[in-house]
Design goal:
alpha/beta; four-stranded parallel beta sheet; two-stranded parallel sheet; 7 helices
Length: 233
């Protein structure tokens, strides 16, 4: 989206491709294969980024109680690594995609002002990342914006991961003539978010003064039942 709408901006992408594919990255993006939980300071030193959007995480919330070490390394350690580099190399703003998992609620409306009580290690890790970023802002003057997206779906999503993204899991099952698993009566609802719809808001979180040191829920608002979703897929 930035490449298309803001060609004056030089875009870099850093990813270890553990959950995605190089073919999904536009040619105009300067792409670097790296694990952000490891040493990435040389990347910051070389390119001197103005803004950093930290989207990296293995977002398998239901699996997180069984992969605790990986969960915390992939989320909290990686974020601490990025925060350190942002401070040292004077990044103007860090944008972090957290999760509605920090709220710890099910079937309730979540507001940014709510007290967060996460119910699993994934939510704990995301909340800890938020807290570390805010402390960096207080102690080192790092500007930040924390986004809490929910139920993102759309083109180029990974359908090969059996632990995350119900739409992707069901697409894989249908292609392989496997049944769709639905827990309970299927009347529980979610508000799904097409990825294209949140790209401009993400850009605004980078450039808008109003987004400075704000926590923002980001996503769709139309509820869809799991049964209805299964029929659509």
């Amino acid at each position: 989206w930035i490449v298309t709408n803001h060609p004056e901006v030089e875009v870099f992408g850093v990813d270890d491709l553990s959950g995605g594919f190089r073919s999904n990255v536009p040619d105009a993006v300067n792409f670097i294969v790296a694990d952000v939980s490891q040493d990435i300071e040389h990347i910051f030193a070389k390119y001197q980024f103005d803004y950093v959007c930290h989207f990296s995480a293995y977002a398998a919330e239901c699996l997180s109680p069984f992969i605790r070490k990986y969960n915390y390394t992939n989320n909290l350690v990686a974020t601490a690594n990025i925060v350190n580099c942002c401070i040292k190399y004077n990044v103007k703003r860090l944008i972090f995609t957290s999760s509605i998992a920090v709220y710890g609620k099910e079937g309730q409306t979540c507001y940014e002002s709510d007290v967060c009580t996460p119910k699993d290690p994934y939510g704990v890790a995301k909340l800890a990342c938020e807290m570390d970023i805010k402390i960096a802002g207080e102690q080192h003057g790092l500007d930040w914006c924390i986004l809490r997206p929910h139920n993102i779906i759309g083109r180029n999503q990974n359908i090969w991961d059996s632990y995350r993204n119900v739409v992707g899991i069901w697409m894989f099952n249908i292609l392989n003539k496997l049944p769709l698993s639905i827990y309970g009566d299927g009347l529980q609802t979610r508000a799904f978010t097409i990825v294209d719809d949140i790209l401009e808001p993400i850009w605004n979180s980078i450039v808008s003064e109003k987004a400075s040191k704000q926590i923002i829920n980001l996503g769709g608002s139309k509820p869809t039942s799991i049964l209805e979703l299964a029929k659509i897929v």
